[in-house]
What we know:
The chain is of the alpha+beta class. 27% of the residues lie in helices and 22% in strands. The chain has four helices and nine strands. It has helices spanning 14-20, 30-51, 157-175, 199-207, and strands at 58-64, 71-73, 79-86, 106-108, 117-120, 125-129, 133-139, 182-186, 189-193. A three-stranded antiparallel sheet has the order 1-7-3, with no helix packed on it. A two-stranded antiparallel ribbon has the order 2-4. α2 (30-51) crosses α3 (157-175). The longest helix is centred in the N-terminal third of the chain and has 22 residues, at 30-51. The relative contact order is 0.19. Mean pLDDT is 86; it is low at 180-184.
Amino acid sequence: MSVKQLRENALTTLDDMLEFMGMDAETVPDTVKNNITRLINAASSYIEAVTGRKFRKQKYVEKHFASGYQELCLNQYPIIQIESVIGDDGNQITDFDHSGCGEYGVLFRDQGWAIKGYRQGLADDIRLGSRYLTVIYTAGYVLPKDATEDEPETLPYDLQMIVWQIVQQQWSLAKNGANGLSAFSISDVSWTFDKELGSQVQEIINSYKRVEC
């Protein structure tokens, strides 16, 4: 039997999870490894769904409405690199900065991000905004499973820790035959919660919820 692979968004590795649970990776049966892998995948997807974020380092291409203010909020963060910001005229916008607020996905521009759109009515006001800004950027963390010697993991340790705690809790409940009180599903992953998450775990999850600006 082959061992199932972790999804690309998995927030921990199977080896780290087994070590946390006090299991020897060399002697644990593949059936156990597969079930724990499923729990890791489900817990990672759950955390992403609740926080409204993607944590894996990857490239994004997004269309944005201008805010009319000095801040433009991207969908994902922390920002690692801005490849380009392109306006409706096809020219690149370069007079912005994210060094002080990229941790929250914000691009700051002194002169502001001018609203553009479609004008209507006698006052010729903009009634329908235009997503005229195209932002190409890289954001997120290097996950434990993706880490190399040249690019070590950057995922905050508390995020990995809560995956360990969630998986261990669900594994213990399954072994004790206590499953089935409520369910959460996303895509093709089903996740069953049989007991409420601990307050510490919930507080950590809440602290990573996407900041709306």
